[in-house]
Design a protein that fits this description.
The chain is α/β, with parallel strands linked by helices. It has 12 helices and 23 strands. The protein has helices spanning 14-25, 71-78, 105-137, 156-167, 177-182, 197-204, 256-260, 272-280, 339-347, 350-365, 399-406, 427-458, and strands spanning 2-10, 31-34, 46-49, 52-55, 60-64, 83-86, 95-96, 185-189, 209-210, 213-214, 219-220, 225-231, 234-239, 244-252, 265-267, 282-284, 286-292, 306-309, 319-322, 332-338, 374-376, 390-392, 412-414. It is globular, with a radius of gyration of 24 Å. The model has no long low-confidence stretch (mean pLDDT 93). The protein binds flavin-adenine dinucleotide (FAD). Residues 134-149 have a biased composition (Low complexity).
């Protein structure tokens, strides 16, 4: 059987929910939200671990304290969400080598400065190469400028710094809208209700809920969308369990990784310009591994919150955080892996990952530390509803890619973190993108109605 509604929203992460809310607030209420997993939130996801609530996906509200107010921070303040200020800047002074010695702050600061300079140089070279390419395309002649090669990191300390600079905080290399617009501060969400509490509150504004549970049958969980048949008359959505839903429009909020995978078939296929834009955007994998200990053996205190392990393999259990600021007495450490290391760890057993983490910790803190009593390894890469953690546009990417990733294809509208030109990769990016797409569709529906009216009066 099939039912027809005005709009189907695919995905109930922050962008899908915020888009649906805009629709509902503008009188488009016959909507259906199809979510593949058994909960809303998507990449905002808490789990109980070691007696506290930990965030497997987004953990920070990034960009606070600046000239403009971060809308997600506003939601958090409104809901009294418990947060904790994080100061990453100290991380570089807590670099351990493999024999457990802390790199002297002078050396660390020098290496850091060198790495920043080199990254800036690399960026300039790339910009220049790009400009030359453009000049050549436009018939200009090769300027043959000699560009200074950036130095490549070699020692474990240099590799560790390179890792935190490129895989975490490029802000020192090039301006990032999140920090320029909203401020440089970052707050870790440390609330038993979870980061996703903000989403439930948002959903409550337009979906029927009772005792904190969404009971509105316009939200359908465990509905994996596998096919979108679209024409100028509307869209037919087919789910894995054989259900068929029809609507005038679809808002597709699945991640860039899912768009790149073959989970959803488009019939007819997406046009070439769309397909190519989707292929151009990189997917970043970012994995926070949680480890629970019987007692604390690491230095605590705010300026010790983050520490770094310098190893000859780049990104090998490099970036560590203790959770004592967020949850005192929880005895939990978090180590963050990215990209190839994330994929490697997802493919092996948790026991193996635990063994590797313990060896690294014993390098830093000596052989007598206790074994972890629990481990949690989230899998964002092998999750077929995610296929990665967030979009990662090339630093020098042309605006056309953004435009094409976001642009609708007939009656299919696109949203999600990856469609936010300024704030892609962040929760507020997803939130603002949802509002944007919601508004664009409301406008489209209004125009459509006007056209209908006109054609009727003509008759
Ligand atoms: P999603 O949350 O992915 O929502 C899309 C939804 O679509 C999902 O619920 C998914 O299940 C569903 N779906 C997928 N395929 C289908 C299908 N075929 N049919 C039906 N439904 C489908 N941001 C920050 O601001 N601060 C941080 O500290 C931060 N850290 C992060 C750490 C990690 C490990 C990760 C993974 C992300 C992090 N982010 C962070 C990024 C942030 O989480 C995302 O930008 C944001 O949550 C994306 O929201 P979205 O609605 O665009 O996508």
């Amino acid at each position: 059987s099939s039912t027809r509604s005005s709009v189907i929203v695919v995905g109930a992460g922050i962008s899908g929910i915020s888009a649906a809310k805009v629709l509902a607030e503008n009188g488009v209420e016959d909507i259906v939200i199809l979510e593949a997993s058994d909960r809303i939130g998507g990449r905002i996801r808490k789990e109980c671990f070691g007696g506290v609530s930990v965030e497997l996906g987004a953990g920070w509200i990034a960009g606070v304290g600046g000239r403009e107010s971060n809308p997600v921070w506003e939601l958090a303040v409104e809901q009294n969400l418990r947060t904790c200020y994080s100061d990453y800047s100290n991380a570089r002074y807590n670099i351990y080598d493999q024999s457990g010695k802390i790199i002297p702050s002078g050396i660390a600061a020098d290496s850091y400065k060198k790495a920043v300079d080199s990254a800036i140089q690399k960026l300039r070279n790339e910009e220049e190469a790009e400009a030359n390419d453009d000049a050549n395309i436009n018939g200009g002649n090769d300027s043959n400028k000699i560009t200074k090669p950036p130095s490549t990191p070699k020692t474990p300390v240099e590799l560790a710094i390179d890792f935190i600079l490129h895989d975490f905080e490029m802000a020192e290399v090039e301006p990032i809208s999140t920090y320029v617009d909203f401020g440089e501060r970052e707050y870790l969400v440390a609330d038993e209700r979870g980061y996703d509490y903000l989403l439930y509150k948002m959903a409550e504004d337009f979906l029927f809920t009772s005792e904190g549970r969404i009971l509105d049958d316009r939200l359908k969980l465990n509905k994996v969308v596998r096919e979108l048949q679209h024409s100028r008359n509307g869209v037919t959505v087919i789910t894995e369990d054989g259900c068929v839903y029809e609507a005038n429009y679809v808002i597709l909020s699945v991640s860039i990784g899912v768009l790149q995978s073959d989970l959803i078939a488009f019939n007819p296929p997406l046009p070439r310009w769309k397909f190519e834009a989707i292929e151009k955007c990189d997917v970043m994998v970012y994995t926070k591994i949680f480890l629970k200990f019987p007692y604390r053996f690491w230095p605590s205190g705010p300026e010790k919150e983050f520490f770094i392990y310098a190893h000859e393999r780049r990104g090998y259990y490099t970036f560590w955080q203790h959770m004592e600021n967020a949850y005192p007495g929880s005895n939990i450490l978090v180590v963050t892996l990215t990209n190839e290391e994330s994929k490697r760890v997802e493919a092996q057993s948790d026991e193996e990952t635990l063994r590797e983490s313990m060896a690294v910790l014993r390098d830093m803190f000596g052989p007598n530390i206790p074994d972890a009593i629990d481990i949690l390894v989230p899998c964002w890469w092998n999750n077929r509803f995610q296929r990665g953690s967030y979009s990662n546009y090339p630093i020098i990417s042309n605006r056309k890619v953004f435009h094409n990733i976001k642009a609708p294809v007939g009656h299919i509208f696109f949203t999600g973190e990856h469609t936010s030109e300024k704030f892609n990769g962040y929760v507020h990016g997803g939130y603002l993108a949802g509002i944007d797409t919601g508004k664009a569709l409301v406008e489209e529906i209004r125009k459509e109605k006007e056209r209908e009216k006109e054609s009727q009066t003509l008759l």
